[in-house]
Amino acid sequence: MTTPVLLDQILAPGGLRTVFQPIYRVAPGWRRLHGVECLTRGPRDTNGESAAVLFEYVRRKKQETAVDRACLVSALAAASLLGGEPRLSVNVHASTLSRDDRFPAFVDEITRRYGVTPERLTLEIIEHGPALDGLSFFHALAALRDQRIRIALDDVGVGTSTLRMMLDCRPDYLKVDRYFVSGAHIDPAKRSVLEAVAHIAHGIGAQVVAEGVELAEELDVVLETGIGLVQGHIFCAAVDTAQLIEREPALRPEFHPLLEA
Amino acid sequence: MTASKILLVDDESTILFAMKEFFAHGGFQVDCAVEREEAEALIANIIYAAVIADLRLLGSDSGDGLDVVEAARERSRDTRILLLSAYTTPDVEARARSRGADVVMRKPRPLPEIAHCVFSMLEGRQ
Predict the structure, then answer these.
(1) CB of A48 within 8 A of CB of A63?
(2) Do A2 and B13 touch (CB under 8 A)?
(3) Alpha-carbon separation of residue A8 from A14, A44, A72 (angstroms)
(4) Cβ distance B52 to B9 under 8 Å?
């Protein structure tokens, strides 16, 4: 007897789930919701339940394009249950922009389907190093910008990210990886990296999001370096729709047909 | 090192289920994968005490199990690796060992015999 492969389970209707993590604009003693990142979880009771395993598997299967499309649909469908029209961030592989020349049109179709205005959507580009080789990547980026979609570079400072990508993409956001945030209050070198990223962002007209902020001391360092957008457990873990609404009542739907009996 | 974690890689769900039950009863935390890519994704994120892989996996005609062996060995020198195959030849065995397998075993074999081999490898590691 042959077991169903994970990819089939991922791409089956309802195979992917979306959870949300808020991103806040923060100043000392003050914070305001800036947007929410839509994070994908794979099918329950499979190895893909772990996001790290899910996307490692997808990349090894070279199925980033199909799964990125499925993630976008899952994310915007889940977000359509929220009120308040928050900004939404969704991850997309750089390779999807390189290989799938219909992706910008697909984004346009899906945002219309779920009533998300383009200005509300940020695509967070992950695994972006290899994309430097391809003109098609930059064509896709330009098409998305023409649609008024915002662009973020994710995982800045680790993995395949490069300084050149910051210049060539001219992103709206730089998301500095949690590696540089964790323990920044006791490691001056990490603080220096945060300061450098903030400085670069200022120079290219981008905003910085500090990811993985967990401690008040880390938050202090982040704010001192001039980074004003914060994501992390210090404020909220990744939560489902109901939990998000409980934490952020402004996202409570005033009315939604799905809530009718 | 997560001492009690074990990864089973086989595209036959009946074999996988039986092995999972057996090793879980033996006190292991057991992960299962039916494809090479799934096994490699797990190995990239988890260090296993032992990996038991079939040579031939879903969608492959030859030796995807060897890629799993190599991925597990690159991830950790301490992982004990057992390759199972119905097609064991001196050539396969040599290739498996060169890519990091500790033991190559012809299948089918009774589960207690496979378990005994795994326990022996783990004890040897300690």
Answers:
(1) no
(2) yes
(3) 11, 13, 17
(4) yes
User: Among partner residues B31, B35, B45, which is closest to A6 by beta-carbon distance?
Assistant: B35
Tell me the two tokens of residue A255: 């009315």
Q: How many CA atoms lie within 13 A of A229 on its CB side?
A: 23
- Per the CB < 8 A criterion, the answer to whether A83 and A251 are in contact is yes
Chain A residues whose beta carbon lies within 8 Å of the beta carbon of residue B35: 5-6
Cβ-count burial of A222 within 10 angstroms (0-12 exposed, 13-18 middle, 19+ buried)?
A: buried
C-alpha to C-alpha distance for A58 and A3, rounded to whole angstroms: 18
CB-CB under 8 Å, A47 with B58? no
Q: Which residue would you say has higher pLDDT here, A143 or A162?
A: A143
Q: How far is CA A123 from CA A6, A39, A115, A140, A148, in A?
A: 25, 12, 16, 12, 11
What's the CA gap between B11 and B34, in Å, rounded? 4
The two three-digit tokens of residue A82, written as one number = 């929220």
- Give the residue among B98, B110, B10 at the shortest CA–CA distance from B51: B10
How far is it, in rounded angstroms, from Cα A100 to Cα A109? 15
CB contact under 8 A, B12 and A47: no
Say which of B31, B32, B58 has its CB closest to residue A2.
Answer: B58
Evaluate whether ipTM surpasses 0.95.
no
Tokens of residue B47, six digits = 């260090």
pTM here is 0.90
- Kindly indicate the confidence band of residue B103, based on its pLDDT and cuts at 50, 70 and 90: very high
CB pairs under 8 A between A and B: 45
